[in-house]
Specification:
Structural class: alpha+beta
Largest sheet: 4 strands, antiparallel
Number of strands: 8
Order of helices and strands: HEEEHHHEHEEEE
Helix content: 25-40%
CATH architecture of the largest domain: Roll
Number of helices: 5
Strand content: 25-35%
Radius of gyration: 22 Å
Amino acid sequence: MKKKVAMLLVIFTAVVLALGCMKNATNESRKNPPAAQGGSELAPVAKSGEHENFKILEKRLTAEDIAECKQVIERYFEALRTHNFELYNSAVADGWKVKSGDPQVLRIKEAKVYRINENPRWFNLESIQEGGAGISRLSGKTWYKVAILNVDQLLVRAYENSKEVWRDESNIDYILVKEKPESPWVILDAGR
């Protein structure tokens, strides 16, 4: 009887240790994507590279890609803070470009990035059709690369003809695209 109890205790301890090691390995891989572990690729963006409505030619993002995307998001927020329309337009895709004096930009009283998640969102193209921030904006095109970065941000807007302001501290996904290898990264859309 004592041998059975001792054996069960040994098996139980082994299972608990194995599960703890698996959990730690999973958490480490989330904290340290392959690029941080010395690899050249940061994260897979898609399994197949094709979706019924669009196509991504290069499915892997490098640490350089992520750094460039973060710079685009920072430039976008600087443009909102300073009401710099030229800088704003350099950070966004054609559908977001505005004319000088655009009231939507001029209403911004404060724009701040608290944090840009170092790891891009992992998604596979098979699940994109179910929704998500601006995914439909990818449709009908072939993209060289696509990245989705999550941003903790603050936007303070003034109401039209009022002294009241709307303060929005939120967590937003930014979809950035690179149309061709030589194209700059630009913000295609953002949402929750």
